[in-house]
């Protein structure tokens, strides 16, 4: 059985996403493992851009890279405003925030493991 480009393993997809975010200087990148905790995705990535313009650029480049590398089209919400962009890549959901918006919503705190202290780790 041949695997379609959109059936890429979630760990490979996550690695490419983290690489793209690093290339575009995303800040405070947090990866949360959702396997066994949510049927929506295997991983959630939360990061910040310094401005609305950088948030939009990080999102746009990530979408372009995933399309080029994996043939995967992602669903995107909020790119026009640039405060909070949600990128649904299937097995990985990415949230790119302006710092003030991220501080307000504190999204990653809702998904941290019980008793988790600090931020989720970035996989090696």
State the end-to-end distance.
30 Å
Tell me, what's the shape? globular
CATH class: Alpha Beta
**Mean pLDDT over the residues:** 86
Q: Rg from C-alpha positions?
A: 14 Å
Tell me what you see in this structure:
The chain is an alpha+beta fold and 124 residues long. The chain has one domain: Beta Polymerase, domain 2. The chain is built from four helices and five strands; from the N terminus they run αββαβββαα. It has helices spanning 10-23, 52-70, 99-105, 107-111, and strands spanning 27-33, 43-48, 75-77, 84-88, 92-97. It has a five-stranded mixed β-sheet with strand order 1-2-5-4-3. Helix 1 (10-23) crosses helix 2 (52-70). The termini are far apart.
Keywords, separated by commas or semicolons:
five-stranded mixed beta sheet; alpha+beta
SSE topology sketch:
Layout: H1 10-23, E1 27-33, E2 43-48, H2 52-70, E3 75-77, E4 84-88, E5 92-97, H3 99-105, H4 107-111
Parallel strand pairs: 2-5
Antiparallel strand pairs: 1-2, 3-4, 4-5
Helix pairs in contact: 1-2
Brief write-up:
The protein has helices at 10-23, 52-70, 99-105, 107-111; strands at 27-33, 43-48, 75-77, 84-88, 92-97. With 124 residues, it is of the alpha+beta class.
């Amino acid at each position: 059985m041949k695997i379609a480009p959109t059936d890429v393993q979630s760990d490979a997809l996550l690695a490419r996403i983290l690489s793209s975010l690093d290339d575009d200087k995303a800040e405070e990148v947090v990866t949360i493992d959702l396997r066994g905790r949510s049927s929506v995705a295997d991983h959630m990535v939360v990061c910040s851009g310094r401005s609305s313009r950088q948030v939009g650029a990080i999102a746009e480049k990530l979408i372009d890279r995933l399309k080029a590398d994996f043939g995967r089209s992602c669903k995107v919400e909020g790119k026009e405003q640039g405060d909070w962009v949600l990128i649904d890549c299937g097995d990985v959901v990415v949230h790119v925030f302006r710092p003030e918006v991220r501080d307000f919503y504190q999204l990653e705190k809702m998904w941290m493991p019980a008793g988790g202290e600090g931020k989720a780790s970035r996989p090696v």
